[in-house]
Amino acid sequence: MTARLVVLVSGRGSNLEAIAGACASGALDARVVAVLSDRATAPALAHAAARGIPTEVITAATHEERQRFDASLAARLAAHAVDLVVLAGFMRILPAGLVARWAGRMVNIHPSLLPAYPGLRTHRRALADRVAVHGASVHFVTPELDGGPVVMQVRVPVRPDDDEAALAQRVLRAEHRLYPAALQRILSGQVAFRDGAAYCGQRRLSEPERLPEEVG
């Protein structure tokens, strides 16, 4: 049976496009059944609508609204009967209760080789540290910010002349290969979340699987 995905977005939606494209080509045995956003102006919503994917906007500003947001998001995910919740540039920290409810069925992509550089401004921090290799990670979501077990990574060499924008562009291009590949590994049952860790079959992953290094 084709897996059902809901994608959560806040911004431009390039990873959403990569995922939807992989679904359409058959590279990913799944279907995006809805795209949810916390920003009504997110360009990702237009990308989804152009593909005929239903979209919904759930916003919050005050504390009371945030409580309603959490409840509404939980209700919408349940209503869509999804197999996997996919965070793709979703910039809101989810409540621990919701994360726990979807443990092992919620994933995120992060623009660094976790555990290096959790949080924001990852490319700037990598350049400031003069690292030779940067990249991106797909991980199961846990209450710890960017701290869930990593499923798969892709490495991106840092060039001597890189600035933040150039490095970010190459990492993003690598993300578009990484995310569909990692999702397929999860949906096929080859990688799973158990006891707070990622497993490949009966083997606990001591380190993430890796896509071939981005060289372009």
Read across the widest sheet, the strand sequence of neighbours is 3-2-1-4-5-6-7-11
- In which range does the helix fraction lie? 25-40%
What is the CATH C level class, in words? Alpha Beta
Give the tally of structural domains.
1
CA-CA gap between termini: 36 Å
Number of strands: 11
CATH fold description: Rossmann fold
Radius of gyration: 17 Å
CATH superfamily: Formyl transferase, N-terminal domain
Largest sheet: 8 strands, mixed
Mean pLDDT over the full residue set: 95
Inertia-based shape: globular
The helix tally amounts to 6
* Uncertain parts: none
Series of secondary-structure elements, N-terminal to C-terminal = EHEHEHEHEHEEHEEEE
Question: Strand share of the residues?
Answer: 25-35%
Describe the structure.
By secondary structure, this protein is an alpha/beta fold. The chain has one domain (3-210): Formyl transferase, N-terminal domain (Rossmann fold, 3-Layer(aba) Sandwich), CATH 3.40.50. It has 6 helices and 11 strands. It has helices at 14-25, 43-50, 63-79, 96-101, 122-128, 164-187; strands at 3-9, 30-37, 55-57, 84-87, 106-110, 133-140, 150-157, 191-194, 197-200, 203-204, 209-210. An 8-stranded mixed sheet has the order 3-2-1-4-5-6-7-11, covered by helices on one side. Strands 8-9-10 form a 3-stranded antiparallel sheet. Helix 1 runs parallel beside helix 6 (164-187). The protein is globular, with a radius of gyration of 17 Å. The chain starts with a strand and ends in a 6-residue tail after the last strand. The model has no long low-confidence stretch (mean pLDDT 95).
